From TrEMBL:
Reaction catalysed by this enzyme: 4-methyl-5-(2-phosphooxyethyl)-thiazole + 4-amino-2-methyl-5-(diphosphooxymethyl)pyrimidine + H(+) = thiamine phosphate + diphosphate; 2-(2-carboxy-4-methylthiazol-5-yl)ethyl phosphate + 4-amino-2-methyl-5-(diphosphooxymethyl)pyrimidine + 2 H(+) = thiamine phosphate + CO2 + diphosphate; 2-[(2R,5Z)-2-carboxy-4-methylthiazol-5(2H)-ylidene]ethyl phosphate + 4-amino-2-methyl-5-(diphosphooxymethyl)pyrimidine + 2 H(+) = thiamine phosphate + CO2 + diphosphate
HAMAP family: TMP_synthase
Protein name: Thiamine-phosphate synthase
Ligand binding (Mg(2+)): 87, 106
CC cofactor: Mg(2+)
Organism (species): Sphingosinicella rhizophila
Superkingdom of origin organism: Bacteria
Positions that bind 4-amino-2-methyl-5-(diphosphooxymethyl)pyrimidine: 54-58, 86, 125, 155
Keyword Transferase: yes
Pathway(s) of this molecule: Cofactor biosynthesis; thiamine diphosphate biosynthesis; thiamine phosphate from 4-amino-2-methyl-5-diphosphomethylpyrimidine and 4-methyl-5-(2-phosphoethyl)-thiazole: step 1/1
Stored InterPro entries: Aldolase_TIM, ThiamineP_synth_sf, ThiamineP_synth_TenI, TMP_synthase
EC number(s) from the headed UniProt entry: 2.5.1.3
Domain spans labelled Thiamine phosphate synthase/TenI: 25-205
Length: 226
């Protein structure tokens, strides 16, 4: 791995903004995965610096997700990649995950903090709303997520965000911001330049025609904004 692409040395202790000259990659799982997904994940994580992986499985109950999680969590911990659980504070607790990502209907960041403890990383969906982002920051979130910036086939989105919200946020606040939604190596640069601390990516990595490793590598040139 290229030394120039190493992560903040404190990672994954916190969703640190790290050096402001760099943006980091935050992988989001496909909504459905196959039994061999741990190998696919390992290929992606070994291809370049990935700060965090979010387990975002839809249409399954928590027991089923918990059964699938173990090898994925191991792949992350072996590589110092933060393992974040989507949607469920209780599942994050059960798995001993590094953190949880909460949508607006998924629970309160304060409750997540109480249940998961001070070291847990709590992210909050803020759509295109400055108000929601400030609320999340006040509630103790470790990052705020804005999106969707581009059309996506991974989920139906009701909100579209403009890159300027990233510039507004990162100028005023120290708390890291994540950009999500339809991000590819071809369109992501504008978000990095606008101030995104993390690019959260699903489809562009897992459906890359040359495999997920190539998907991760394709983002490397975008992440340095110095
Ligand atoms: C990093 C990141 N940002 C936003 C989301 C979306 O979360 P949510 O609004 O809860 O929607 P679902 O993911 O549950 O469909 C996310 N998962 N990750
Ligand atoms: C999970 C999710 N949340 C979004 C939001 O706008 O809150 S967009 C999105 C899908 C991200 O997948 P892809 O990189 O394939 O577009
Ligand atoms: Mg959710």
């Amino acid at each position: 791995m290229d030394d120039d692409l190493t992560l903040d040395p404190d990672f994954p202790a916190r969703f640190d903004r790290g050096q402001r000259s760099r943006c980091q990659l935050y992988l989001v799982s496909p909504p459905r995965i196959t039994e061999d997904f741990a190998e696919i994940l390992a290929e992606a994580l070994d291809a370049g610096p990935v700060a965090a992986f979010q387990l975002r499985l839809k249409g399954l109950d928590e027991h089923a997700i918990a059964r699938m999680a173990e090898p994925l969590q191991l792949a992350c911990s072996e590589r110092d990649v933060a393992f974040i659980v989507n949607d469920s504070i209780s599942l994050a607790k059960r798995l001993g995950a590094d953190g949880v990502h909460l949508g607006q209907g998924d629970g309160d960041p304060r409750e997540a903090r109480t249940i998961l403890g001070p070291a847990a990383q709590v992210g909050v969906t803020c759509h295109d709303s400055r108000h929601l982002a400030m609320e999340a920051g006040e509630a103790g979130a470790d990052y705020v997520a804005f999106g969707a910036f581009f059309p996506t086939t991974t989920k139906e989105v009701l909100h579209r965000a403009e890159p300027s919200i990233l510039g507004w946020w990162s100028t005023l606040f120290e708390l890291p911001c994540v950009a999500i939604g339809g991000i590819t190596p071809d369109n992501g640069r504008i978000l990095v330049e606008a101030g995104a601390d993390f690019l959260a990516v699903c489809g562009a990595v897992w459906t890359h025609p040359d495999g997920p490793g190539a998907g991760v590598r394709a983002f490397a040139p975008l992440l340095d904004r110095s």
